[in-house]
Amino acid sequence: MDLDQQKLFDRIASYSFDDPQTRLTFAARLARENGWSLHYAQRALQEYKRFCFLAMAAGHPVTPSEEIDQVWHLHLVYTRKYWQDFCPNYLGQPLHHGPTKGGPEEHQKHDEWYRRTLESYHKFFQEAPPLDLWPASEERFGRNLAWKRVNWKENWIIPKRQVQNVAQYAFSGLVMVALVGCGAEMNPLDWKGPEFLGLYAELGALSLIWCVLIRALLKIGPVPQNSEPDLTDYEVAYLQNGPERVFITATAKLNRKGCLGVDAKNGRFIQLQPLPADASNWERAVYDSHLTQLNAGTAQKKCQLPIEEIRDSLIEKGLILSPGRVNLIRWLAIMPFVLLLLFGLTKIFIGVERGKPVGILIGFSIATLVVTLINLAVIPRNSRFGNRFLKSLKVKHSSWNSPNPQLNDTAEGIGLPVALFGAVVLAGGQFEDLGSVLRPLRASSNVVNSSSNSSSGCSSSDGGGGGDGGGGCGGCGGGGD
To answer: In which residue ranges is the amino acid composition biased (Low complexity) (predicted)?
Structure first.
């Protein structure tokens, strides 16, 4: 990398995707639209900047990975920032994104460009590109293209690998039942009512034991090297009680900062002064929600907290479970209940067919269904390390969880106590008005967490001789001058 190229790289690296007052950051939107963690999206932004540098400096056409291409797609949506700021002021020329023509020749061309892009990455940055953002060519033009946009509020999204694992266990269980049924005397489906009900109850007890063990064992993970992580008040609040506690903590801190005043008579908060420039995104969300709603309870329900950054930070620190681990725990925990329910329903059909009473078994089956639904509804959040760390914090600051605790009258002074123990620490004394409005807020209220097309190839080129850069992508295009 020569001096001019280094200046170009430094200039691109200094580019900011967001304006100072942006509520929904570019990285947060990228993560939300692609189902990524915020940390992964932030890494993708850095790799996108490297790709743009290669488009200007490599001297040959370049093609991004599918992941980097998603960053490019979103960047093009911000048309003014892309065409009027990023391209002229940071790249020095337009960088176009045009559609592929399709067909085997185009596929071969983009495959070759992608391979050359990876080679230039090695050459300029003296390191291999990260495989999770720059996969091998075979994967980039194979599995990575088989994706679609899905409305997750209308559809369940379950990884195939997890379904396959659960299906294998379920199939094994059914095979065992079938093998037992090879002998009429041993087949439980031919047992009399009392004997079958006894077996069903025993299997139900075993299923409960399995559920408890799965939920306990799968929460165990590697203990991080830093066994005493330094957390913000909001991270502690999320660890203790999720977004609801974050909302209450932010409200209390904004009150002590002089931004929100208490209207205890009407159970609401009013504006005293604007937010400071360094206010966090979640403080802005809480502040705006209080100013637009009639009371604190409604403000809590309507508030859209951008908690992705908090959640991803706690996942990285090993304090809460990743979404994949949460889904695995939930599905493995209900697996024996699903098999037991199928077992009971089969016996019910046999009993009805033979004219036998099945009322008690129907009751047992309904109970099994209820337990199954409860297991699905109870979503694990904290890891075992997270629970242990939280417990140690509570023991360390147990004096706050007592009548009329002595708290400092500052945002920093009440932030951690409220995060750990809730609004109960604000009872009495100088914080009584604040506490009287926050305490009625339900810990389980519905705080909202503001938490695609396929293509055959993408490319860009420097155009040679200082001309426009150009790019191609199936189904997508952009144009400059």
So the answer is: 446-461
List strand residue ranges (DSSP E) for 420-469, in order: 448-449, 458-461
Alpha helices per DSSP H over 296-428: 296-302, 308-316, 323-353, 359-377, 384-396, 411-421
DSSP state of 84: I
Q: Which residue has the tokens 């408890």?
A: 212
CA distances from 101 to 106, 110, 224 (A): 7, 11, 49
pTM equals 0.57
**Percent of the residues in the chain that have a pLDDT greater than 70, as a whole number:** 80
CA distances from residue 240 to 234, 244, 300, 345, 390 in whole angstroms, order as listed: 10, 10, 17, 40, 7
The residues facing 459 across adjacent strands are: 472
Per residue in 311-346, pLDDT (tens digit) is 888 887 888 888 878 888 888 888 999 999 999 999
Count Cα atoms within 13 angstroms, Cβ side, for 368: 27
Check: CB of residue 448 under 8 Å from CB of residue 102.
no
Output the CA torsion sign for 387, 209, 166, 348. Answer: negative
Phi/psi for 43 (5° steps) reads -65, -40
